[in-house]
């Protein structure tokens, strides 16, 4: 989507502090962190939200969820972390490109 900020980040048209990338997903630091570690994991393909996910996204969503604890561990969150997927205006979603929030405090900083 040409006017989607996360598509632009995925395309490298807008800079972001990337921490993980492969052929189908990108993880970067949230620009307005709500925790010492606050990352966003997005699919490179655009769909608006979890409510817009289609059967063709089943494998991708599974691979994204499996990637979350790996990324979290790499950022000091082996002791635990929070994940959040806001869906729709009523769910507090502000950017309409599916994303998984990964939030936590590294153990040594507790
Ligand atoms: P939502 O409320 O849609 O679940 O979360 C959107 C998140 O995207 C917010 O936490 C916000 O800080 C983050 N965000 C919005 N615009 C940008 C941006 O241009 N770059 C980065 N890195 N994060 C952004
Ligand atoms: Zn998008």
TrEMBL record:
PROSITE patterns: HIT_1, HIT_2. The active site is at 99 (tele-amp-histidine intermediate). One of its GO terms (molecular function) is catalytic activity. Signal peptide: none annotated. SUPFAM superfamilies: HIT-like. Residues 5-110 form the HIT domain. A motif (Histidine triad motif) lies at residues 97-101. This is HIT-like protein hinT. It comes from Kingella potus.
């Amino acid at each position: 989507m040409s006017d989607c900020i996360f598509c632009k980040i995925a395309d490298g048209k807008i800079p972001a502090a990337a921490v993980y990338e492969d052929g189908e997903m990108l993880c970067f630091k949230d620009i307005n962190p709500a925790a010492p570690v606050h990352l966003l994991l997005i699919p490179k393909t655009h769909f608006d939200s979890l409510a817009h996910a289609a059967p063709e996204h089943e494998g991708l969503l599974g691979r994204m969820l499996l990637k979350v604890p790996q990324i979290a561990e790499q950022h000091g969150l082996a002791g635990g972390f929070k994940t959040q997927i806001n869906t729709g205006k009523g769910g507090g979603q502000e950017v309409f490109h599916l994303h998984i929030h990964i939030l936590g405090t590294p153990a040594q900083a507790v």
